[in-house]
Design goal:
The chain is of the alpha/beta class. The chain contains 14 helices and 16 strands. Helix content is 42%, strand content 19%. Helix 3 runs antiparallel to helix 7 and helix 10 packs across helix 11.
C-alpha cells in the first residue's frame, strides 16, 4: 500500500469521528493551531528558507517565488485567518428547508461534512493552513499533497497543525500530508474513489487542467484568473484610477489581479494618461491596442508594447496588463465574454443601468461594480479563509468556504405514515 492510500484510509477513518465532533472541540483546536503558528514561526521560517534557497537556485519564476515566500507578517495573517474560521458559525448539523407535507410528514435537510477533502497544490504553503482549518471546522478530514518546491515549509506547517489539533481533541489522522514528491502520487490520488470525496487542485492552469481531465473522483476546479476591469464612459475617473491601480499592482502574482483593462472611447483620452502615469510608477508594462497606443504615445516614462492576439485572455501574474479601447458597453461585455476565465470581472461606472446590465450579462464567479477584483478571496468575503476559488458552476462557485465543504442529507419525521 502506497503512502497516499495509507494516509487516505487513515483520514477516512478519522473523518467518521470528526463528523460528529462538537463545535467547542473544533474551535479549541483551531485557536491552538493559530497560537502554534505564531509561537513556532521560527521553525516554519527556517523550513521556508530552505525551500526558497532551492527555488532561487532553480531559477523559479518571480510569481512562483512570491507565492512560496513566508515571513512573520504572512504567518501572522495565516494565524488570524485561522482565528476567523474559529469565530464563524459551525455549519455542521444545521437543519434547513424544513416543512410539513399534507400527509403530516416533516421533511427537511441537515448539513453534513463531505468526508475527506483531497488537495493537490503548488508553491503556496499557506494553502496547507487554509485548507486544513476550513476542513476541520466543517468536520472533514484532509489529505494534502503540496509541490516539491514547498515540501519543507508544508511539512513544518503540517507538524504544527497536527500537534495542536490532536492535543485539543481532534481525531488522529484527520490532517494528513503526503511527504512523497513523486508525480505518480498525484496520479494515484486522482483515482482514489471511495477514499477522497472531493479533490481541489490549487496551482497553475496546467495543473488544474491535468487534474480535471484525469480525476475519477469529484473535482472542484478553478483558480485560473483572467480578470478584466471595464472603465465606462460615466466612471468617476479618480475612483477608476484607484480601483484599477489596486487591481493590478497590490499583488500582481495572484489569480484575482487585473489582466486586461477596457476603457470606453469617450473617456480614453482623459483616463488612460492618468492610469498610465500611476502604473508607470509601479513599473507596469502596458500591452496596448492601436487606439490606446495612439493616446499614450506622448506620455513620458510609460512602458508600451503593441498588443497581440495572445495578450487577450492571458493571465499575466506579473506587472503587465493588456489595454484596449472599446466603443460601448456592448463591446466591453462581448470582449469579456470571449476571453474571460470566469473568475472575477469588474466595471467602474456611475450609470446604474449599465452597472445592472454588467451584473446580469457577465458570466463569472465574482462580478464587481466600482471595486477592485483583488477582493475575490475567502478571507475578504468573511469566510475566514478559502479552500480555493471555483470557476465552475457545480457544486460551488467562487471562494470555497465552510458551507461549500458540506453537503446535506434529507431528514424525515413521521408518526406512522405508510405510502398508499
Amino acid at each position: 500500500m502506497g503512502e497516499a492510500e495509507a494516509k487516505g484510509l487513515a483520514a477516512k477513518e478519522a473523518s467518521r469521528r470528526l463528523a460528529h465532533l462538537s463545535s467547542d472541540v473544533k474551535n479549541r483546536a483551531l485557536l491552538a493551531i493559530a497560537d502554534n503558528l505564531v509561537s513556532r514561526q521560527q521553525e516554519i521560517l527556517w523550513a521556508n528558507e530552505r525551500d526558497r534557497a532551492e527555488a532561487e537556485a532553480s531559477d523559479m519564476a518571480p510569481a512562483m517565488l512570491d507565492r512560496l515566500l513566508l515571513d512573520a507578517d504572512r504567518i501572522a495573517g495565516m494565524a488570524q485567518d485561522v482565528r476567523s474560521v474559529a469565530a464563524l458559525p459551525d455549519p455542521v448539523g444545521e437543519v434547513f428547508d424544513m416543512r410539513t407535507l399534507p400527509n403530516g410528514l416533516q421533511v427537511g435537510k441537515r448539513r453534513v461534512p463531505l468526508g475527506v477533502i483531497g488537495s493537490v497544490y503548488e508553491s503556496r504553503p499557506n494553502v496547507t493552513v487554509d485548507i486544513s482549518s476550513l476542513c476541520l471546522k466543517s468536520g472533514n478530514a484532509v489529505l494534502l499533497r503540496g509541490g516539491k518546491e514547498a515540501i519543507n515549509s508544508n511539512l513544518a506547517l503540517a507538524r504544527v497543525l497536527q500537534e495542536a489539533a490532536y492535543a485539543a481533541g481532534v481525531p488522529e489522522g484527520a490532517v494528513q500530508m503526503v511527504e512523497s514528491t513523486d508525480r505518480a502520487v498525484v496520479d494515484h490520488m486522482l483515482k482514489m474513489s471511495g477514499v477522497i470525496d472531493l479533490l481541489v487542485p490549487r496551482g497553475g492552469a496546467e495543473l488544474v487542467r491535468y487534474v480535471a481531465s484525469n480525476a475519477s473522483v469529484p473535482v472542484v476546479a478553478g483558480g485560473v484568473g483572467v480578470c478584466h476591469t471595464y472603465v465606462d464612459r460615466s466612471a468617476d475617473l479618480e475612483k477608476a484610477v484607484a480601483i484599477v491601480y489596486n487591481a493590478k499592482v497590490q499583488r500582481p502574482t495572484v489569480c484575482n489581479a487585473l489582466d486586461t483593462l477596457l476603457v470606453h472611447a469617450d473617456i480614453a483620452a482623459r483616463y488612460l494618461p492618468l492610469i498610465g502615469r500611476e502604473w508607470a510608477k509601479a513599473g507596469v508594462e502596458m500591452h496596448c491596442d492601436e487606439a490606446a497606443l495612439q493616446i499614450l504615445s506622448d506620455v513620458p516614462s510609460l512602458v508600451l508594447t503593441p498588443a497581440s492576439e495572445q495578450d487577450w485572455g492571458k493571465e499575466f501574474l506579473a506587472l503587465v496588463a493588456a489595454v484596449k479601447v472599446v466603443g460601448s458597453p456592448d463591446e466591453a461585455i462581448e470582449h469579456i465574454q470571449r476571453y474571460s476565465s470566469g473568475h472575477s470581472e469588474a466595471i467602474v461606472t456611475e450609470d446604474y443601468s449599465v452597472a445592472l446590465r454588467f451584473l446580469d450579462e457577465i458570466d463569472a464567479a465574482c462580478v464587481y461594480v466600482n471595486a477592485s477584483t483583488r477582493f475575490t478571496d475567502g478571507s475578504q468575503f468573511g469566510l475566514g479563509a478559502e479552500v480555493g476559488i471555483s470557476t465552475q458552476k457545480l457544486h460551488a462557485r467562487g471562494p470555497l468556504g465552510l458551507r461549500e465543504l458540506t453537503s446535506y442529507k434529507w431528514i424525515i419525521f413521521g408518526s406512522g405514515q405508510v405510502r398508499p
